[in-house]
Fold this protein.
Amino acid sequence: MSTDANTIHLTDDRFAELTRAAQAEGKTPDEVADEAIAMLLGKRRLDELMEFGQRHTSELGIPESDVNRLISEVRAERQRDRWPCALPRIPTSTSARSTMGVRPVRF
């Protein structure tokens, strides 16, 4: 956390609650406040993203039941684009490994 001084104003009751929570967790009130604010802002970003997705799927006429499948398809397509060549298949049988000169290694 930055050492620059920042000021926020809390009600006395809220500050007392923050102080109790900090003491219970063995942290400073600043640390607990920073974590709480980060969680709140993260939740707001997620809510905005969800709203964006719902708005656009609605505009495109995509039913909610298709969303997870479509996301999986796009991710798989991107993965294929990233790695366009197939990796060589490694044999799983012991006899196939021995013909390739592969010996098991024990750790």
The mean pLDDT is 84.
